[in-house]
Design brief:
Helix content: 55-70%
Shape: globular
Low-confidence stretches: none
Length: 203
């Protein structure tokens, strides 16, 4: 398994989604989104899970857009807000209504505990990939060298601190949201233990 085996899709929708992300999200969140696509696509390819690369890429790149100030919602969970942004984006990209709904579903489901890969392969892959990147859950899916290669290409850039801050803010404003439940369940500690997080050299 090598990073060169994971080809980022180059459709106009993928390029535009990445432009949206890089315009509004922080570099740490953008790299998290790109790593999430790489983990998802690499796992899908390694396990023969048929999936739509364009749909998965757009969902991965926009899955946290509901956390940024311009698209944050005070009334719905961030993943629902992000799904709505992606639906509108997909309409502008000319996607059919069913495909717009699919990208919204994938983004919403990335916050589920688990997703049925038979019913929603893209949702399953994004859910699993974000778990790898945020808390290190299932990080053993990937060889050490592959993980190191991905982190060299897309460094974490202080993601843990920013992400915990975002989720704690969501929890204060939307205490019944999934993000609030995740924050209360020890997100900060799990992120600190994530084997993907850089470690200070031992003295």
């Amino acid at each position: 398994m090598q990073l060169t085996d994971v080809v980022l899709p180059r459709s106009s929708a993928c390029s535009a989604a990445l432009e949206v992300a890089t315009t509004y999200a922080s570099p740490a969140l953008v790299n998290h989104s790109l790593r999430s696509y790489v983990w998802a696509a690499a796992y899908g390819d390694a396990h023969g899970l048929d999936h739509d690369p364009e749909l998965l890429f757009v969902a991965a790149v926009l899955h946290d857009i509901g956390l940024v100030a311009e698209f944050d919602s005070h009334t719905v969970p961030f993943e629902v807000a992000g799904g709505s942004v992606a639906w509108v984006f997909a309409a502008g990209a000319g996607w059919a209504r069913d495909r717009r709904q699919r990208v919204a579903e994938v983004i919403i489901r990335h916050m589920w505990d688990e997703v049925d890969p038979g019913a929603d392969p893209e949702g399953f892959l994004l859910c699993r990939a974000t778990g790898v990147d945020i808390s290190g859950r299932n990080a053993g899916d990937f060889p050490d060298e592959f993980r190191a290669e991905v982190l060299r290409r897309y460094p974490r850039l202080g993601l843990a601190e920013e992400f915990v801050r975002c989720f704690e803010d969501q929890a204060k404003r939307k205490p019944d949201s999934t993000a609030a439940a995740v924050a209360r369940s020890g997100l900060a500690a799990r992120m600190a233990r994530n084997p993907l997080e850089p470690r200070a050299p031992e003295q």
